[in-house]
Amino acid sequence: MSASFEYKGVNSLDMYMRIRNEIVFTSPEADVDFIEVLGRDGELAIDNERLKGVPFSIPVTLKSPEDITIEQVASEISAWLKNDIGWYPLRFSGSPDYEYLAIYTEQFKVAETLKNYGKTVLTFKLKPYKRRIGNGSLNLTNGATLYNAEKRTSKPLITVEGQGDITFKKNGADWLVLTAVDGSITIDSEMMSVFKGTLPQFNKMNGNLSPMFPVLPPGENTITWIGNATKVTINPRWEAVV
Fold it and tell me: Over the chain, what HEC string results?
């Protein structure tokens, strides 16, 4: 089977495109500011504790069936990539265990390039991490252990159903402290948001913990809680650096 990729849920083979040759992943750059200080050799490095996004190029070849013109297919590809600009999962046939988060914003004329040459290079922007596929949301039981097999701390999505004050602990230390829960509340550690439906709920989460939003470091994470939580679901979002 030809090498392919999937973006916005559409496979490149369905657009009559295949990956032309081996693709190369660039490691993300650390976000570090260098400051020169008088009387001090070298520069002072200030680590902003984040990784920058990376450009990612996919060389592709287009071969449409005889009953469909290259112009038609090229226009469809251009619309697919450029409509609804945002971050979407990007998957590769050669990397079945992970998906990347990508955005396509290139302004060059994809359709014209494909029509003229039958091949082009699609350049995406990737988040500096990739997510393990197939882990989805889990129903968490009190005292359950979540094992992070990756080397990167994950930022989970947590939904709690219950009433009143609920305190969660990870490996015995306070991890998430909620007050006056009324039915349900969702905590998104990646987006740093707390909400119920469309309503923000920041006032119901203790913001004095460090880190403020719950994370799952590499290794064992045993989660316990005190309070009236009738259902707890968590998407751990296991991830690794690109």
Answer: CCCCEEECCEEHHHHCEEECCCCCCCCCCEEEEEEECCCCCCEEEEEEEEECCEEEEEEEEECCCCCCCHHHHHHHHHHHHHCCCCCEEEEECCEEEEEEEEECCCCCCHHHHHHHHCEEEEEEEEEEEEEECCCCCEECCCCEEEEECCCCCECCEEEEEEEEEEEEEECCEEEEEEEEEEEEEEEECCCCEEEECCEECHHHECCCCCCCCCCECCEEEEEEEEEEEEEEEEECCCEEEC
